[in-house]
Amino acid sequence: MNDSASEGAPIQRAPVYQTQRRVEFRDTDAAGIVHFSAFFPMMEAAEHEFLRSVGIPVMPHHESEERLTWPRVAASCDFHGPARFEDILQIDLHVDRIGQSSISYRFELTCEGRRIATGKITAVCCDLKAGGKLVKTNVPDDLRQRLSGPQND
């Protein structure tokens, strides 16, 4: 029997965060469809919106004592179908895993119910030291709870 928890199964089935984004002309290629590389900033923007929605700064304020930040260490995206200029994309963010010092997100991008792309991003919790040096640190318990979102049974 498979132990789904050890295989990085999602923490929850429903997305923890949903947002929409209109496809802009700059997102498209010569064929008039969204270029695969445009999905990465869309996923990153959804991640940033999610972090702000749970009260976690994306980047620490220069005067803040708390100096945590979340650099990405892995990102992937699979293309499933075309989206075009002016389409409205639904972006669902799922928290797949919260490790000791990292968080893995899964994204589903759809348009009018059609699957457009799926992606993954893994970010590491880091302490931002003087001079911009990043030092990996454990995800604090209070942030872990906020990142987990509402638990579904």
UniProtKB/TrEMBL annotation:
What CDD domains does UniProt report for this protein, alphabetically? 4HBT
UniProt entry keywords in alphabetical sequence: Hydrolase
Q: Which GO terms describe its molecular function?
A: fatty acyl-CoA hydrolase activity
What InterPro entries does the record tag this protein with? 4-hydroxybenzoyl-CoA_TE (IPR050563), HB-CoA_thioesterase_AS (IPR008272), HotDog_dom_sf (IPR029069), YbgC/YbaW (IPR006684)
- UniProt keyword Nucleotidyltransferase, yes or no: no
On whether Hydrolase is a keyword of this UniProt record, the answer is yes
Q: Which Gene3D superfamilies match?
A: Hotdog Thioesterase
Q: Which family does it belong to?
A: Belongs to the 4-hydroxybenzoyl-CoA thioesterase family.
Give the protein name, as stated in the record: Thioesterase superfamily protein
State the organism of origin: Rhodopirellula baltica SH28
